[in-house]
Design goal:
The protein is mainly alpha-helical and about 80 residues long. It has one domain. The longest helix has about 40 residues. The protein starts with 17 loop residues before the first helix and ends in a 10-residue tail after the last helix.
């Protein structure tokens, strides 16, 4: 996970489902640390999804450019109209 683990901590007010909090407290002795880990994973996953989307866009652009190089632009058909 890419974040500064030594950064200072600060209180954050959140509104969470009471039942979820109760259940989570039964599963972890440090709810704040658990939420911090989950938040870091959420950000990491979001970054990975964004990078994959950028990769797909770049691949689409490259494929489109290769098509135009091989077959010409579809607009060329209407150039002289």
């Amino acid at each position: 996970m890419r974040y500064d683990r030594t950064a200072s901590k600060r209180p954050v007010n959140m509104t969470l489902n009471e039942d979820l909090v109760r259940q989570a407290r039964g599963l972890t002795s440090n709810l704040s640390e658990t939420v911090e880990i989950l938040l870091a994973r959420f950000i990491e996953d979001a970054d990975a999804r964004a990078a994959e989307q950028e990769r797909q866009i770049a691949a689409h652009i490259a494929a489109s450019e290769a098509f135009v190089q091989t077959h010409g632009s579809l607009a060329d058909e209407f150039h002289d109209l």
